[in-house]
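To fix ideas, we now present one chain and its tokenised fold:
***
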Amino acid sequence: MRKVLIITYYWPPAGGPGVQRWLKFVKYLPDYNIQPVVYIPENPTYPIIDTGLVHEVSTQAIILKNKIIEPYQLASIFSKKNTKGISSGIIPNQKKQNFIQKLMLLVRGNLFIPDARILWVKPSIKYLEKYISENKIDTIITSGPPHSLHLIGLKLKRNLNVKWFADFRDPWTTIGYHSALKLSSYAQKKHKYLEKLVLNTADTIIVTSKTTKTEFQAITSKPIEVITNGYDVENISKQMVDEKFTLAHIGSFLSDRNPIILWESLSELVAENEKFANLFQLKLIGKVSQEILDTIQTFNLNSHLNNLGYVSHKEAVEHQKKSQVLLLIEIDSPETKSIIPGKLFEYMVSERPIIAIGPKDSDFAEIITQTNTGVFFTYDEKEKLKKLILSYFELYLTQKLIVLPVGLQEYSRKNLTKKLAEILNL
């Protein structure tokens, strides 16, 4: 069986979407005669923990661990709450940031380039050069963010001439939170330089969306393959659908993903329709920014809010299957058109309708439309959104709120891993 080295930061017991992609690829790669060797930090600072995912790690995978120096560990001494929020992507609106948050973002953006895991690069190169040579490994994969891991691949490529695949779960310099990092002109140029260097040195680039592929094609002529995230067959028993008319958002709800048109629509429906007011519930599952919670309160929706916080992946899937409607929200910015939230694919196989809100021409809008799994709205389509919510509510009252998806098999983790294996074997 051929060995392929996979360098990733997020790995069980880490929770959240960053873990799922390579956890599932590693699960299915042995089916295609590839043995995954996974290199991870020995003592990471994970903002989200889900111990249930440990049991999903393939027994056929070889796991390598090496110590990491984590600036977030030091920062947490001064402010554990702020550190945890920023490291998990919960960045408050600039006007609402306190002094500690502003300072942390300034340091994070300008001292640690491309990110706070940069101190893991040198020890990883030393450790992996020895391992690769001794075990005759000829192919490596780096997965970012954190994009500093691509710098490990860059050095290993130069020193050992291995075949290198750089996997971008998210873009680099156009990622949504980049503008919040208070980057100096030097830092901005350094990011651009490193991004271009990685894209032009790797043998093949792997991205999760067509828009990111187009963006990168302007920087490099290297081959770029699109492999989206996907869904796996989950061992979850059939769930009874919620009795209440529940609209559920599952996953991190960041400050910039604040859909005022949704809160306005729900607030008006509560005021105008007594039956809706009695039966409607807003479920938030995962880390939610304080700004989102404050806005919900502003629109007098607190009495309808069920904020469950972070739950295990298994519990999240259960909620996906039993909620009446699933909410998918992306930042209203041209830079986020390429973002296809990982939870979309699990949403699609939940057999519950999706209401999605995002920027015009979003890649995930096309997927939702093609699979007939929901309806997409831009941030200026409030009346259409309100009308759809009311129509879903009326279908719910007659127990006819269902979804009939098509073409989902393309996005199964097994099929996506087959595509990855074909690329690795070229």
